[in-house]
Each structure stands twice: as structure tokens, then as C-alpha cells.
Amino acid sequence: MTLYIRRESSKLWKRFCSEITTEIGLLAENWKYLLAGLICQYIHGLAAKGVHYIHRPGPTLQDLGFFLLPELGQERSYISETVFTSVFVSFFLWTFHPFILKTKKIYTVLIWCRVLAFLVACQFLRVITFYSTQLPGPNYHCREGSKVSRLPWPKSALEVLEINPHGVMYGCGDLIFSSHMIFTLVFVRTYQKYGTKRFIKLFGWLIAIVQSLLIIASRKHYSVDVVVAWYTVNLVVFCLDKKLPELPDRTAQLLPVNSKDRTKEENHKLLNGNGVDPADWVGI
What we know:
Blueprint: H1 2-53, H2 64-68, H3 78-95, H4 108-132, H5 157-161, H6 167-170, H7 179-194, H8 198-217, H9 223-243, E1 254-256, H10 264-271, E2 281-283
Antiparallel strand pairs: 1-2
Helix pairs in contact: 1-4, 3-7, 3-8, 4-7, 4-9, 7-8, 7-9
């Protein structure tokens, strides 16, 4: 038993080291795209905070979803955020599963480059939309009489550049369309294409539907925000996926050799989704 554990531990360690080496090579090639994607996440956060300054509370608009779904209320609003957090954490961990599991179909660096491209494109459209028309927020903290329904004007330039840590939960004005649904649908569609478990794919779409209903029930968004997110995100991902180079499809028993042993030309072939020569692959 001890010998078996040692042998398996040794295999796991070798696989982990091989993955690290490969991913570092890919990171060296793609760090600019990852950094640009993360900077855009920061800019999106600033934009969402900015619209809160000009938000004006008012009567909640007539909404079919509000008629059909009872309001969760302030005490149960955490349910929607809990589901979203579970989706985010689950997807994040899945993108790093090649470091541990033998079933490898993706490279972590490349999958996040693709995901960030989808997110940035959708968030760009979202910022344009919610700045075009500001709707009165339907959430309890955005209604008439709430102290946080409007942000006080910033007193310094530094304050403008600060991200409100409570903005995700207590933002107002950034409505059409739902940012939570952007992340959820991008994650679900990505796993739909690169995941391997059919039941998880079906479960992911079910969770996306449940998340949509919870967002409306918690009054974080109007129904239109969720509906627009469903067709906008799916169309954006579909179109970008056709334009971006396909990711290399990995087999369950093969790993690329150390990236430093590959030529720059071979690295570019790998990044563009073209397979390298079989002689450059070694078994675990």
C-alpha cells in the first residue's frame, strides 16, 4: 500500500511539474492578452461605479418577472449571490484541473485568454447600454429613501479610480444587461465546448436558468436585463469563437515536452491550435 501511494504520488508530481513547465511557456507567449483582459475587468468596475453617481431612484418599472416571481427580500438576497459564487469557483477550479487529473483537454492559460476575450466583448456592450439610458434600480438599496441609492460625488481623483468593494452587491444603475449572467453564460458555454462530462454540461445550463430566475426574484435586475444577456452573450461568444484560433485538443495520455525544448515556431503552432509533431509528445 505504501509503495502504491509513493508511486502514484511520484506520477502526480511529475505530471504537475510538466504542466507547470508547459503553462509557463504559454504564459510567456500570452501574458499581454491576460493582462489586457484583467485591466478591462478593472475598467468595467469603474464604469459600473461611475453610473452609480448619476443613478436617480424612482418608482420600480412594470415587469412581468416581478409579477410571476415573489421577491426574495433583503434577508434572502444572498441565495442568488451564493449560486453565482458557486458557479464562479467551480469553473475556476475546473480550468486548473489539468494540473491534477489525467483527463486533459485544455490548457489553463489558453482557456482564460479565450474566456477573458468573451467577457471583455460582452462587458463593452454592457457599458454602452447602461450609460445610454439609466433606469431606476429595482433592488431594495436602490429605491427611494435608501441612503446608498446615490453615491456622493468624489472628493478627489483617487476616489474616482477606486473600485467600490461593495459595488457587486450594492451597485445601482448598471442594469441592462446583467453582469452576473455574462459570467455565468460564458462559463457554461466554455464548459459546453471544452468540458468532458455530459451531465455537468446539462447541469450547467440548468444552473444558468435557475440563476436567471434568482436574479429577477432578488430584484437585482429587471427581466429585460436577463433576457438581453441571454441572447447577447450567446451571440457574442458564437461570433468570437468563429474568429479566434481553435485551442489544441489534448489527449488523455499525452503531454507536451518542456516548452523550452520547443522552437518559437512550434510554440506559435500550439497557440494557434495546430498540433505539433507527434515526436514532440511524451507519455506520462
